[in-house]
Amino acid sequence: MLAGRHRCPIELLAVCLLGCLLARSTPAGAEEPKVRVGVLGLDNYQAVAYAQLFNDPKAAGELAGLRVVAAYPVGSADIEESVVGLPKWKEQIGTFGVELVGSIDELLGRVDVVMIMSLDGRTHLEQARAVLKAGKPLYIGRPLAASLADAVAIFELAKETKTPCWSSSQHRFSPGFIGMRDHPEVGRVLGCDVYGGCPTEPHHAELFWHAVHGIETLYTIMGPGCVSVRCTSTPYAESITGEWADGRVGTYRGIKQGALKYSATVFGEKGVSTAGIYGHGVPVQGVVPTNDEYMGYKGIAIELAKFFKGGPPPVSADETLELFAFMEAAHESKRQKGEAVRIDAVLDKP
Questions:
Q1: Which of 71, 85, 113, 190 is buried deepest, with most CB atoms within 10 A?
Q2: Could you give the CA distance from residue 129 to residue 140 in angstroms, rounded to a whole number?
Q3: What does the pLDDT look like over 286-341, one tens digit per residue?
């Protein structure tokens, strides 16, 4: 009989326990830990889009390792889009295994990180306050807030609580837009003309509601550093011209009537090019790819995944506040019949 062939029950138990411990400590045999993501506000399709991407069992690369586990489904009774969307998105997000909870506190007790997805920027400061005081890393979907004062307050609270927080439009990470920063056929960006839709809501600062997506595209391509803004407003368009500290000029045309498209023309040291089509890649020799992978929300979802796994916010608070001050300066310029308004004056305004 071979030595060690038979062992007593205690020895067998010890071996089993040791095997379990070794298996748990072996990376190759362990399931990748999941970051538990919570959704606050559910009247916005984006919440469903992110749940679909993060909860996909075939998710790979940066998108792997996260799971949307719970959502607090609040909306706003005075926003038609919210009233119509909330029941629809509640039903759809459930198909990805997301549990609906009854309060912010219940949500915070079940998750590691939070996405504020409510459409209503008026609610974001109070919603963010609860999340940041709980120390949960936070992403806030557009609009960050309904006023510049609330936007400033959110980032001040994030700084006070030492909790990472950021906000961005999904347009920033559309490959054809962000890829224009160093496009080999354009070179260093000298200027940019962006255009997109400009619907409004009466209870939000005019440009904050939807034009923020196009203005974020302008900042994506130009970078921060704008010092003054002029706005011309007609029933057809909001036309905003920004002057950067180095003399570069960027414009935004908010389309109110007529054909609607989201894109830009970029002027550079080497050439001039369209920025392509939202969701698609950078143009090559002026030709916009349309048979490539449509990114849509995937581009920003990848950045969210990096952030939720412990990476830094991909857009700084300073740049985001400058972007919102750009819009507030445009509002003030409009009130002053097109006079130039300095961004620092708006930010310093009590």
A1: 71
A2: 12
A3: 899 989 999 999 999 999 999 999 999 999 999 999 999 999 999 999 999 999 99
What is the Cα–Cα distance from 325 to 205, expressed in whole angstroms? 12
Q: How many CB atoms lie within 10 A of CB 239?
A: 17
Q: If DSSP codes are grouped into helix, strand and coil, which group holds residue 331? A: helix
User: Global pTM?
Assistant: 0.88
For the chain, where are the alpha helices, taking DSSP H only? Answer: 9-25, 45-54, 80-94, 104-108, 124-133, 148-161, 175-178, 212-222, 298-308, 317-335, 343-348
Q: How many CA atoms lie within 13 A of 192 on its CB side?
A: 28
Structural domains in the chain, CATH included, are 35-167 (3.40.50.720), 172-294+315-348 (3.30.360.10)
Q: Are 283 and 180 in contact (CB under 8 A)?
A: no
The number of C-alpha atoms within 13 Å of 147 and in the hemisphere containing its C-beta is 10
Q: Which token pair is 301?
A: 């979802």
**Whose CA is closest to 140, among 149, 130, 153, 127?**
127
- Report, as an integer, the average pLDDT of 167-176: 97
DSSP character string of 125-156: HHHHHHHHHTT--EEEPSSS-SSHHHHHHHHH
d(CA 83, CA 78): 8
CA pair distance 167, 144, nearest whole angstrom:
6
